[in-house]
Amino acid sequence: MRTIRSVTALLMLLSAGAWSQSDGNKAQISGTVFDANRAVVPNAKVKIRNTGTGLTRELITNATGLYRAVLLDAGSYELTAESAGFAQAKVEGVYLNVGMSLGVDIALQASATVTTIDGGASLMNVALPAPATTINQQTINKLPINGRRFHDLAVLTPTVQVDPQRRQLSFAGQRGINANVMLDGADYNQPFFGGIRGGERASFAFTVPQGAIQEFQVVITGYSPEYGRSTGGVLNTITKSGSNQFHGDAFYQLRHKELGAKDPVQQIAALETQHQWGGSVGGAIKKDKLFFFTAF
Questions:
Q1: Which domain holds residue 62?
Q2: Which pLDDT score is estimated for 19?
Q3: Rounded distance between C-alpha atoms, residue 52 and residue 165, angstroms
Q4: Do 236 and 145 fall within a single domain?
Q5: Which has the closest alpha carbon to 218: 179, 175, 188?
Q6: Are 28 and 102 members of one domain?
Q7: What 3-state DSSP class applies to 19?
Q8: Would residue 4 count as lying in a domain?
Q9: What is the SS3 assignment for 86?
Q10: 154 and 228, same domain (yes or no)
Q11: 120-to-74, 104, 248 alpha-carbon distances in Å
């Protein structure tokens, strides 16, 4: 009986740890529903829909008109709010980045027409203060990168650089092994030394393809407790998933040794010709229900 209790306690502890960390790679929306006179509207129905996957979350405002939706995937959303005696209000163009906490207040009008608001330019990130930079999908797709290792793009963030000795990411001057690299909320660190998986001892170690990365957040310091583990910065990365629309890409990258510039002692920088190729594809198996994504 004592053994069963110990195992149960261990499983509860592990599940609690996993739950606390899972919020780090998600986002949330909260806000207040008002009427035209800025009075709060309790018991209003708020629907939050991911426009890419059709995922829908339905909430009811509390006595003070507040609502909060947590553990949302990064992506584009639309919000609708309705209550008896009011016209439905819709907020479009709401985009959530990884780790974001967004405030979206909704105003209901006493009219017979639906009110639509473009929320893209008027929303506020209400997350706890922490120096963070988000590297989005456009940046990952468009900027050139040598080797297509997604975490090298983190050096676009102020105070982040590559440690020349161990080739790890150094956040705010700290050693690279003190950094915490997260992938979809899970630990993606070198198991023994810490830092980037593979590290300086395995520059050719398997890593997630750049084409599979949706976006990532670079948190330099002052991050909230759900990230934990490290005294250095955090690289909070999420991968892509399929959506209702089919998307795909393919690439071939050639770095020929004969095209490399020579250094002052007439040595060519690229000793061997390098080839990289691959691609990715994703889409819906069943609209709004089941999706797939693969990258190579």
A1: 20-125
A2: 34
A3: 43
A4: yes
A5: 179
A6: yes
A7: helix
A8: no
A9: coil
A10: yes
A11: 15, 10, 26
- For residue 19, the tally of other CB atoms under 10 A from its CB is 12
The answer to whether residue 1 is domain-embedded is no
What is the total residue count of the chain? Answer: 296
Would you give the DSSP letter of residue 127?
Answer: P
Q: What are phi and psi of 284, to 5 degrees?
A: -105, 135
In DSSP terms, which residues pair with 56 in a beta bridge? 49
Whether residue 5 lies inside any domain: the answer is: no
Same domain for 175 and 189: yes
Q: Do residues 112 and 150 both lie within one domain?
A: no
Token readout for 27 is 């986002």
Q: Are strands 180-183 and 106-107 parallel, antiparallel or unpaired?
A: unpaired
Q: Please, what are the averages of pLDDT over each run of 10 residues along the chain (296 residues)?
A: 43 36 76 92 95 94 95 93 91 90 90 62 53 82 81 86 80 83 84 66 64 88 70 87 90 79 68 83 92 92
Structural domain ending residue among the three candidates 79, 104, 125: 125
CA distance 23 to 9: 22
State whether 236 and 254 are in the same domain: no
Is beta strand 124-125 parallel, antiparallel or unpaired with respect to 101-103? antiparallel
User: In this structure, is the dihedral angle defined by the CA atoms of residues 189, 219, 278 and 284, taken in order, positive or negative?
Assistant: positive
β-pair type (234-239, 180-183): parallel
Q: Which amino acid is at 88?
A: Q
Q: Which tokens go with 145?
A: 């990168």
Boundary residue ending a domain (125, 151, 183):
125
